[in-house]
Design a protein that fits this description.
Structural class: alpha+beta
Strand content: 35-45%
Oligomer: single chain
Order of helices and strands: EEEHHHEEEE
Helix content: 10-25%
Number of strands: 7
Number of helices: 3
Shape: globular
Radius of gyration: 17 Å
Length: 163
């Protein structure tokens, strides 16, 4: 395994930093088609807060790949994803799940200014799976969870200020 941390800074015209993004990426050796995914954490429904269900499909994955210039075949070639990489179906981009979680925050809290957003993928999400987005409001933002039928796939934290 190889762990890489990428840091991107988007600079405004005046030279000040507008956005800082840090990604921790794990590179692993190629899997065998018979490899099994590790078990997921059991899902726990949020005790309070809105939920939304999304079912990512191949068209959504293709469009997100095009938007982000991501040409990895696990997102658009189901035969490759299954027979070469060993996945059960097309893989939903981790950043796409994070984008859906951020969208869930923005739909629930209009007019806010997000000051911080971080996420951690815990398991793969596959095309055709029902993805439950959960939100629990905190003192300065929200705790978010993306849940697939077998358990928790992603957790996130959003900090924001209200107008």
């Amino acid at each position: 395994m190889l762990f890489v941390t990428l840091k991107h800074e988007i600079i405004r015209a005046d030279g000040s930093v507008a956005i800082v993004e840090e990604q921790d990426i794990v590179y692993r050796e190629a899997s065998r088609p018979t490899a099994f995914a590790p078990p997921l954490e059991p899902a726990q429904l949020a005790s309070a807060g809105p939920t939304r269900t999304v079912v990512p499909d191949p068209t959504m994955l293709f469009r997100y790949s095009a938007l982000t210039f991501n040409a990895h075949r696990i997102h658009y070639d189901s035969e490759y994803a299954r027979n070469v990489e060993g996945y059960e179906a097309l893989v939903v981009h981790g950043p796409y799940v994070a984008t859906l979680l951020m969208d869930h925050v923005l739909r629930q809290h209009t007019g806010i200014t997000v000051t911080s957003f971080s996420f951690r993928a815990k398991a793969a999400v596959f095309a055709g799976q029902s993805l439950l987005l959960q939100l629990v409001k905190t003192a300065d933002g929200a705790e978010l969870t993306a849940v697939v039928p077998s358990g928790i796939a992603m957790t996130a934290t959003a900090e924001f200020v209200c107008p």
